[in-house]
Amino acid sequence: MGLLFARKYGDLPKEIRVNNLKCLLLVLVFSLPSLSFAYGIGYASYPLQEKQLLLAPEFVGLFSNGAGAGIQGRVTFKPNQPFVVEGGFGVGTGDRPVRIFTGVDYEIFPDYDNQPRVSVKGSYEYAREFKQGINILGVAPTISKGFLFWGHKAYPYFAIPFALGLHDATKTYQSRLNMTVGIAGNIPMQSQGHLIGNAEMTVSLKDGYGGFLLSVAYPL
Predict the structure, then answer these.
(1) What element of type H or E holds 24?
(2) What secondary structure letter does DSSP report for 36?
């Protein structure tokens, strides 16, 4: 049944497939319960074309300070150079049961010749963490560079996300600092070469959390 559906779906015109994917994303947004956690740097370091849109399901896991596992969805869009914007939500388990996020990445220096890409990413999150509502404002300086790995181009990156969280109940602030390393690139399979994969690992430096993220993005 799944193979038959895939063949019929693949035979549809591209415009219909794109519209169906957008509708599916909207259905997921409004039908999934409010259980989410984990964020990530995402696809800002990957060289997107202007006006390019990515839809990405992601598997996330936390192994410290509120451990759990789940999935999230991310929408990434590059309106123009030097900006990349995104937003997302997720479902999962653990002590961080609600998180919705949005962010904007600003490129300071491009990935050119021997020069790495340098950017700064601002973000906003609303989270339920340990039964408390928290508004989180963050900034993440990021460095990335494209390299060839066994004939395939990929883009490792390194970021130091810093954030301030305002607790709704107590009206107090808490700072948190993480370190994130990751890599993004096209899936090295001929039949799936249009898909973009991303893998991240995050370590807490101060009042944050440790975790990982695995993602595959579909470009529109």
Answers:
(1) helix 14-31
(2) -
Residue type, 179: M
Q: Are the C-beta atoms of residues 166 and 181 closer than 8 Å to each other?
A: no
* pTM of the model as a whole: 0.78
DSSP codes joined into one string, 56-118: EEEEEEE-SSS-EEEEEEEEEEEEETTEEEEEEEEEE-SS--EEEEEEEEEEEE--BTTBPEE
Query: Tokens in use for 55?
Result: 């839809």
What is the pLDDT tens value at each position of the chain, 220 positions in all?
A: 333 333 443 444 544 444 544 444 443 333 333 333 446 899 999 999 999 999 999 998 888 766 778 888 999 999 999 999 999 987 777 776 667 999 999 999 999 999 999 999 999 988 777 777 889 899 999 999 999 998 889 999 999 999 998 887 787 888 989 999 999 999 988 777 789 999 999 998 988 778 899 999 999 8
Q: Which residues pair with 134 in a beta bridge?
A: 127, 167
N residues, the chain:
220
Residues 117-133 as b or e (16 or more Cβ within 10 Å = b)? bebebebebebbbeeee
Q: Where are any strands of DSSP class E within the chain? A: 53-62, 68-80, 83-92, 98-109, 117-129, 132-144, 147-149, 152-159, 162-167, 173-186, 196-206, 211-219
Q: How many other CB atoms are there within 10 angstroms of residue 43's CB atom?
A: 27
Q: Mind listing the domains of the chain with CATH numbers? A: 32-219 (2.40.128.130)
